From TrEMBL:
Any Pfam family the entry gives: HHH_3
Biological classification of the source: Bacteria, Bacillati, Bacillota, Bacilli, Bacillales
Annotated spans, Disordered: 216-237
Gene Ontology terms describing biological process: protein secretion by the type II secretion system
Alphabetical keyword list: Membrane, Transmembrane, Transmembrane helix
Transmembrane regions: 18-39, 46-63, 69-89
InterPro entries linked to this entry: Endo/Exo/Phosphatase_dom_1, RuvA_2-like
Database matches in Gene3D superfamilies: Photosystem II 12 kDa extrinsic protein
Stated name of the protein: Uncharacterized protein
Cellular component terms (Gene Ontology): type II protein secretion system complex
Top-level division of the source organism's lineage: Bacteria
Length: 237
């Protein structure tokens, strides 16, 4: 037996089981084969063929025995049964080719979907590996940075300059300036937790910074108290 499609004879036989409906006795179910084929590969012409093969069966059921319509329906049902057997073998090659093409499109779409999902996972993985804060601006790769310079001691974030803070892994000069701006706004950072909360730093980035940072608040507290005393001083005349 010669194969019709690239799928092989085994695949073709498995996808030709629907043809067996035409071999049931006396056209009782021959129309089912055409309805199935029409639905599977979306062909209206086979749906209409199924309707035509259904009519003799319906007339045969409703006609009274002995009536001339009964004899006509019987003859039509017999003719349609034989005709449907030849018809179903004629449409089989087209059905198999259409089904093969349809499955190739589905496999292609599925492959594209898998590739798209894989790319999304790669992008998400790259985002997690980056040490850039969500509030940090884009750093020009051509811009000189002192991020790679070693930090020999802990940096006091409440008193350090932008260049000193920029040496901390995961910071960079632009983000260091951002830290100074936030420090100016809040006065000083109370502790490491306050620091990451104000700047919105991701946990995995914060853990890389933690060993290099410290927060000395003694001078800041004295300065704030002094400012409060100056604001609260009353001058007598």
């Amino acid at each position: 037996m010669r194969s019709i499609t690239e799928k092989g004879i085994g695949w073709e036989l498995r996808n030709s089981i629907w043809m067996l409906w035409v071999f049931f006795p006396f056209a009782f179910f021959n129309y089912i084969s055409f309805f199935y084929a029409a639905f599977r590969v979306r062909q209206r012409k086979w749906f209409f063929a199924g309707l035509i093969y259904t009519l003799p069966f319906i007339i045969f059921l409703i006609a009274e025995e002995g009536h001339f319509l009964f004899d006509i329906a019987f003859a039509l049902a017999l003719i349609s049964w034989v005709s449907s057997i030849f018809h179903v073998f004629r449409i089989r090659p087209e059905y198999l080719l259409r089904l093969e093409s349809q499955q190739k499109v589905q496999e292609k779409n599925l492959k594209q979907l898998k590739e798209a999902i894989a790319k999304e996972h790669i992008l998400e993985s790259n985002d997690e590996q980056q040490v850039i804060s969500p509030k940090e601006e884009f750093i020009n790769p051509m811009q000189p940075s002192i991020e790679n310079e070693s930090v020999s001691k802990r940096i006091d974030v409440n008193h350090a300059s932008a260049d000193e803070i920029a040496k901390v892994p995961g910071v960079g000069l632009i983000f260091a300036k951002k830290i100074l701006a936030e420090r100016e706004r809040v006065g000083f950072f109370q502790n490491f937790e306050h620091f990451i909360q104000v700047l919105g730093i991701k946990p995995h980035v914060a853990e890389k910074m933690r060993p290099y940072l410290q927060f000395n608040t003694d001078d800041n507290n004295q300065g704030n108290q002094k400012k409060k005393m100056e604001r609260g001083r009353v001058v007598d005349f």
